């Protein structure tokens, strides 16, 4: 959606909300936002928290989330300079919903595991 006066509709192909939803719910976007909901992180600590993400992928994810106004990148005065990431108020609102979803998924891991076994047995 190029015209900000138009109503947001995530189902519309060109709507900005769709792009933002895609960024926030991408594989690494969800995990970065959920981690930042716990605490502000420096890049290297965030990379350790989000196990398995490459430096390049985390950097791209954080840039996208920053561009969408979900994350703030702060350069700390130090030698060498250090960078810290935190959530904006919008990022906090999105992360709160994502962490609720994460809790539901984690609570139901045994159900998912059983469903997978049953599914695989039918194949």
TrEMBL record:
Gene3D superfamilies reported in the protein's UniProt record: Winged helix-like DNA-binding domain superfamily/Winged helix DNA-binding domain
Domain HTH hxlR-type intervals: 15-113
Protein's UniProt keywords contain Acyltransferase: no
Gene Ontology terms, MF aspect: DNA binding
UniProt entry keywords in alphabetical sequence: DNA-binding, Transcription, Transcription regulation
Protein name: HxlR family transcriptional regulator
UniProt organism field: Rhodococcoides trifolii
Upper taxonomic lineage: Bacteria, Bacillati, Actinomycetota, Actinomycetes, Mycobacteriales
């Amino acid at each position: 959606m190029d015209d900000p006066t138009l109503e947001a509709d995530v189902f519309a192909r060109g709507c900005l909300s769709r792009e933002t939803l895609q960024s926030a719910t991408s594989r690494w976007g969800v995990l970065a936002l959920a981690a930042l909901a716990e605490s502000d992180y420096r890049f290297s600590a965030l990379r350790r928290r989000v196990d398995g993400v490459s430096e390049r992928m985390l950097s791209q994810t954080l840039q996208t989330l920053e561009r969408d106004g979900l994350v703030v990148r702060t350069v700390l005065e130090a030698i060498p300079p250090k960078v810290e990431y935190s959530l904006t108020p919008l990022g906090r609102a999105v992360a709160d919903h994502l962490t609720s979803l994460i809790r539901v998924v984690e609570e139901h891991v045994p159900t998912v595991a059983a469903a997978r076994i049953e599914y695989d047995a039918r194949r």
